[in-house]
Amino acid sequence: MNTLPRFLRQAWTALRFLLLATVVLGLLYPLAIFGIGQAVVPFQANGSIIKDSAGKPAASALIAQVSADNSGTQSPLWFHARPSAAKWDPGASTASNLGPNDPKLLDAVKAARAAIAAAEGVKESDVPADAVTASGSGLDPEISPAYARLQVPRVAKAHGLSPATVQAMVDRRTVTGLEAFLGQPSVNVTELNLDVAAAAPGSAAPAK
Amino acid sequence: MVFNVASFITQVAVLLLLLVLVHKPLGFYLARVFEGTKSTRVERLFYRLAGVDRNTEQSWSIYLRSVLVFSAVSILVVFLLQRLQGVLPGSNSLPGVDPWTAMNTAISFATNTNWQVYTPETTMGIFVQMCLLAVQNFLSAAVGIVVVVALIRGIARTRTDRLGNFWVDLARTSFRVLLPMAALAAIVMLIGGVEQNFWSTDVTNQAAGITQTIPGGPVASQEAIKILGTNGGGYFNANSAHPFENPNVFTSLFQVFLILLIPSALPYAYGRMVGDQRQGYTVVGVMGTLWLASTVLMGWAFAGAEGTATAAAGGLGEGFEQRFGAAQSSIFATATTLTSTGAINVAHDSIPPMAGGITMLNMMLGEVAPGGTGSGLYGLLILAIVSVFIAGLMVGRTPEFLGKKIGPREMKLTAMYILVTPVIVLASAGVTVLLPDAVANAPASGPHQFSEVLYAFTSAANNNGSAFAGITTSGPYLSSVIGVAMLLGRFLPMVLVLALAGSLAKQPKIPASSGTVPTHGWLFGSLLLSVTVIMTALSYFPALSLGPLAEGLLK
């Protein structure tokens, strides 16, 4: 028997198999998960969107939200997120992909350390590692409690709040317990900045 | 970022406990699916519509041809529909995918590699991701599983040339195993915070004057099978480091569990199908030992935090996500490279040099601990045959494996299997480093630059898909060589495995005698472990010395 027709018949079977499998696995399955998500956990399914006091979507709790100028310097009014190779653009997640011995990375780390120490008025050795290293996604909304503590005086002053009040906000947004043990203690900057804005209405309008 | 040893030990213990608890019931279920003869009414309808004769079993060559034809059709369809993205619905206003990228991606997803030469956010719309790539995540994982099932049948059956029906095996694995498990996993991920929608959301922080567009998509459904099927192709560029794919440390630990789940349950199914449960325990014991050793080694390398830039930063951080921490990321990096997954929750390019070396070594082991879905088990069974061959040489008898003679034909197939992947990796990396234009795609310098190239080909030929992502591989040269490496690295081993299955199935079963080397227990397990490690070390040691070892040792 000629093998070519048999080969073609198999290809025809393969094509039909693929098409049918696509209906089940590529349409019905994701739509079912979509339905379950909307019915059971709509907040998570829709991207953990936090609303402001007016009920308008203000941020995603999972995505860094940063006010920065064109050179990538973050606004002195708010808590700063970690450096980002994606410039905190939610549509362009990426890491720097620089090696641990890369001279470019070494320079970037040193420059970031000096800049942060100057801006916060602390010693260079007090700046923690997460403050000077770009995250894996470029959208990491979280920083270490040490880096948050460093920023409390600056943010408190910018909004006319007492440092104790702002530190209390930081503590409230610090992950603790089992999650902090398995991962590590961290503070969600996106949520923290919204807390600060809510506590100090008006002061956030262009401060200059 | 501090490496928390207590957290590391806790997570490893939790994973071990969960896998030990689950591998038996799941393995039992898998064996029942593969040995079952009944079809449900829906399946019968499916077979009728697809034109599958469910009652006919195939010889090894027809089984192989079905594997190859199905994969070729998948590659062609995925390629063509990516090219047509611009005129299809669900494109998110993105144009048709560039031909080099489309071909590389089609091969990548049909071979269970999920090497991503593209940036998903700006290249692939919802249709391509959901209806093409995620579907291949299911089917390529299922193809890996059915090939090992055919091999197990070849070992278990006697005097026959029939190995089962590829189409029936593929449908059963997809719909009875992967689909229900992925659905459960997706629901857990949804609750954990992974999104599942079809729109992006504009958000405005009034106080700070920031406007963002938060990307949406059917992420949970895709993430579940990406991880469960040891695929690894992320919905977003940052993969499992992206907060929407992996929102917290719990989902991250859950992902590691899912990566290891099916590959570590398959040995139990194997033991059951060959009628000797000890065989399965020995195999899974070897897998588990290697996994544990590699995980501890990786933890050590992460804790060391070597590197000039890392030291200047005051510790690990570059490429890490704050919420996972170094312990979880080291466990993830091990699991993803010991299997054919290649998802990442930390940028592998930025981890300490020795840790980068371990990720490569894990892939070079042939991804057998516990390996990709199906491919891990057939890889280790091939190494088991090498082990009985070596033991047979020592006692001066024709080696046997579960009552089947390992003659010249079987040994030739086995030897070729062992050689195929190292040849692809070393030849393609070797040629590439001779081409200055190609090397220029890796932006690092010194040993790290070589590591970026070596990692790319190791990952491609072993169908892993992770990367030292500093390297740019979207140009015609690298994308096509990597495409060829993925194809050969996937299908040449499968050809050999199925040929071996065919020749084992034909044989009668010879009863064990006093000269038979038992293929279970501590002694054989240790031999298998040594063979696995030595084979790898011999093949790849020179290449590893030039890359990560040099970078880690030279200060």
Automatic annotation (TrEMBL), chain A:
Main subcellular location of this protein, as a coarse class: membrane
Record-level GO cellular component terms: plasma membrane
Subcellular location: Cell membrane
Entry keyword annotation includes rRNA processing: no
InterPro entries referenced in this protein's UniProt entry, alphabetically: KdpC
One of the record's GO molecular function terms: ATP binding
One Pfam family it belongs to: KdpC
Keyword list, A-Z: ATP-binding, Cell membrane, Ion transport, Membrane, Nucleotide-binding, Potassium, Potassium transport, Transmembrane, Transmembrane helix, Transport
Protein topology in the membrane: Single-pass membrane protein
PANTHER family referenced in this protein's UniProt entry, alphabetically: POTASSIUM-TRANSPORTING ATPASE C CHAIN, POTASSIUM-TRANSPORTING ATPASE KDPC SUBUNIT
Function of the molecule: Part of the high-affinity ATP-driven potassium transport (or Kdp) system, which catalyzes the hydrolysis of ATP coupled with the electrogenic transport of potassium into the cytoplasm. This subunit acts as a catalytic chaperone that increases the ATP-binding affinity of the ATP-hydrolyzing subunit KdpB by the formation of a transient KdpB/KdpC/ATP ternary complex.
Quaternary context: The system is composed of three essential subunits: KdpA, KdpB and KdpC.
NCBIfam families: kdpC, PRK00315.1
Recorded family membership: Belongs to the KdpC family.
Name recorded for this polypeptide: Potassium-transporting ATPase KdpC subunit
TrEMBL record, chain B:
Location of this chain's protein in the cell: Cell membrane
The entry's keywords: Cell membrane, Ion transport, Membrane, Potassium, Potassium transport, Transmembrane, Transmembrane helix, Transport
One of the record's GO molecular function terms: P-type potassium transmembrane transporter activity
GO cellular component, one term: plasma membrane
Keyword Zinc: no
Subunit architecture: The system is composed of three essential subunits: KdpA, KdpB and KdpC.
InterPro entries: KdpA (IPR004623)
Membrane topology: Multi-pass membrane protein
This protein's record includes keyword Ion transport: yes
Lineage: superkingdom: Bacteria
Function: Part of the high-affinity ATP-driven potassium transport (or Kdp) system, which catalyzes the hydrolysis of ATP coupled with the electrogenic transport of potassium into the cytoplasm. This subunit binds the extracellular potassium ions and delivers the ions to the membrane domain of KdpB through an intramembrane tunnel.
Source organism of the structure: Arthrobacter terricola
Residue stretches spanning the membrane: 6-31, 62-81, 126-152, 173-194, 249-269, 281-303, 377-395, 416-435, 477-501, 522-541
Annotated protein name in UniProt: Potassium-transporting ATPase potassium-binding subunit
Main location: membrane
Family to which the UniProt record says this protein belongs: Belongs to the KdpA family.
